[in-house]
């Protein structure tokens, strides 16, 4: 497991947590090889026996949410697997991170925004001036059909960052004001573009790079110059959606005098870092987590010598909890049944609070 230290200002380490970053194409392969696809679909594609995993769209979809969902549904899932004669898969932490990245990418394709509104915005925000759908027009904007960003939210963020200064200049020359995009508007535009007949069947992708190298770049590119103190990105603890991120990349040009272009690899690194930041800081309340631990009866075994003393330290993160579930869950479930302990359910912040508590046990 990779352990990263994130220090924003020299000497001021804000968080110390083990954060893995997943890769959606590895996740997609696992989804097949581990037979998830036999029962589950992603946005309509795949088995129909179990919930569609691309459609879990609550705004703050995080690894802790996925861990809680899997724990909650595990007993039913296992009995469905036994009936279907499928062996229960084992997943390590990295594989759990890969699956999360895959579901996250699938949500980028989720038809939650309003394509009709998106089409209007594409015109009213001036995008259609330069961009046709299938052909290149006189102003040279890449036709939408050829956009890598339609399938890849990181590429979308990069493009929004890279060409907003040019647009600001073009529009300035015509005496127009640079349009600001809200996250909602960006999402509507993305939904519109992803659901054109020409783009609808493309496969999603989401492959952020290592947070450690991303942090270096965050400094080298001068992001740190503004994002310190009150503006530190670590201050915002909720998850950013892909559209929110792309919209903020676009809106920067109105705040900056100079903006250097980012290469694909650079944006992957920055996103890896910013992603890891939000998981490293979104870490729940240990005191509440202790109550969850007690109320769910975990201590009945783990503090009474019937099961390993839980001293996970930094190993207690969402991906590890998914891995533990698939590895130890079935035998834990048997023991629980024999002691009349109900299989636990986790709601709201229960899982992240529990993890915060487990990290304090060493
Ligand atoms: C044999 C069929 C089957 C297989 C294979 C299977 N699942 Fe499930 N899964 C289910 C069923 C049935 C449910 C719903 C259980 C319930 O209603 O409590 C479920 C629920 C879930 C949920 C909660 C979904 C929600 O939105 O409520 C997640 C997440 C999940 N499964 C992930 C996976 C992953 C990842 C894999 C592959 C490693 C997998 N499942 C393999 C049958 C299966
Ligand atoms: C003044 C002309 C102009 C306008 C207006 C414009 N673009 Fe562009 N856009 C371009 C050009 C030129 C490129 C090719 C950029 C390059 O190759 O560096 C481009 C590229 C892109 C790409 C990258 C496509 C890919 O390869 O994945 C995206 C995404 C994009 N634009 C989105 C938008 C959106 C959204 C708007 C409206 C908010 C917009 N553009 C408005 C000229 C424009
Ligand atoms: C000139 C100062 C400046 C620089 C340099 C800068 N930003 Fe920003 N950034 C801002 C401001 C101002 C905001 C808007 C904050 C707000 O609206 O809450 C912002 C917003 C953001 C957001 C959204 C924050 C949120 O609360 O959701 C992200 C992500 C971000 N910037 C990333 C970057 C990255 C990556 C770089 C370097 C490539 C960078 N910024 C460089 C000033 C800057
Ligand atoms: C009925 C007894 C019992 C209860 C109640 C129980 N567990 Fe376990 N747990 C076990 C056993 C036994 C193992 C080891 C299983 C194995 O070796 O496969 C285990 C393993 C684990 C592990 C893996 C240990 C490691 O270091 O990797 C974790 C994490 C865990 N349990 C968490 C929990 C949590 C959280 C709860 C409460 C929601 C809980 N357990 C409730 C019996 C229990």
From TrEMBL:
InterPro entries to which the protein is assigned, alphabetical: Cyt_c-like_dom, Cyt_c-like_dom_sf, Cytochrome_c_Oxidase_Subunit, Multihaem_cyt_sf
Gene3D superfamilies, sorted: Cytochrome c-like domain
Residue ranges of every copy of the Cytochrome c domain listed in the record: 22-107, 113-197, 284-362
GO function term, MF aspect, one: heme binding
Keywords: Electron transport, Heme, Iron, Metal-binding, Signal, Transport
Signal sequence, renumbered to the chain: 1-17
Protein origin, superkingdom: Bacteria
Entries under PANTHER family matching the protein: CBB3-TYPE CYTOCHROME C OXIDASE SUBUNIT FIXP, CYTOCHROME C4
Protein name per UniProt: C-type cytochrome
């Amino acid at each position: 497991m990779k352990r990263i230290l994130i220090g924003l200002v020299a000497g001021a380490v804000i968080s110390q947590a083990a954060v893995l970053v997943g890769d959606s194409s590895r996740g997609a392969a696992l989804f097949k090889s581990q037979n998830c696809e036999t029962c589950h679909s992603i946005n309509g594609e795949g088995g129909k026996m179990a919930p569609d995993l691309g459609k879990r769209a609550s705004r703050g979809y995080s690894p802790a949410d996925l861990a809680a969902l899997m724990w909650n549904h595990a007993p039913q899932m296992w009995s469905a697997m036994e009936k279907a004669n499928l062996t229960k898969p084992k997943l390590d932490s990295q594989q759990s991170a890969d699956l999360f990245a895959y579901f996250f990418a699938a949500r980028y394709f989720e038809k939650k925004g309003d394509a009709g509104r998106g089409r209007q915005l594409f015109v009213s925000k001036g995008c259609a001036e330069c961009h046709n759908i299938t052909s290149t027009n006189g102003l040279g904007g890449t036709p939408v059909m050829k956009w890598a960003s339609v399938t890849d939210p990181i590429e979308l963020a990069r493009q929004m960052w890279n060409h907003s200064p040019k647009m600001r200049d073009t529009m300035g020359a015509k005496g127009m004001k640079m349009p600001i995009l809200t996250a909602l508007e960006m999402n509507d535009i993305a939904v519109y573009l992803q659901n054109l007949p020409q783009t609808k069947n493309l496969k999603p992708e989401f492959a952020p790079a290592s947070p450690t190298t991303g942090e270096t770049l965050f400094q080298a590119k001068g992001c740190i110059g503004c994002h310190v103190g009150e503006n530190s990105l670590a201050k915002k603890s909720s998850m950013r959606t892909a559209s929110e991120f792309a919209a903020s990349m676009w809106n920067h040009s109105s705040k900056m005098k100079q903006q250097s272009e980012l290469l694909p690899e650079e944006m992957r690194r920055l996103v890896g870092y910013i992603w890891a930041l939000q998981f490293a800081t979104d870490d729940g309340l240990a005191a509440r987590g202790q109550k969850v631990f007690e109320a769910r009866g975990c201590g009945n075994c783990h503090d009474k010598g019937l099961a390993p003393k839980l001293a996970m330290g930094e190993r207690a993160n969402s991906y590890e909890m998914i891995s533990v579930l698939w590895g130890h869950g079935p035998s834990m479930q048997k023991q629980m049944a024999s002691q009349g302990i109900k299989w636990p359910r986790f709601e709201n912040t229960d899982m992240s609070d529990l993890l915060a508590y487990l990290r304090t046990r060493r």
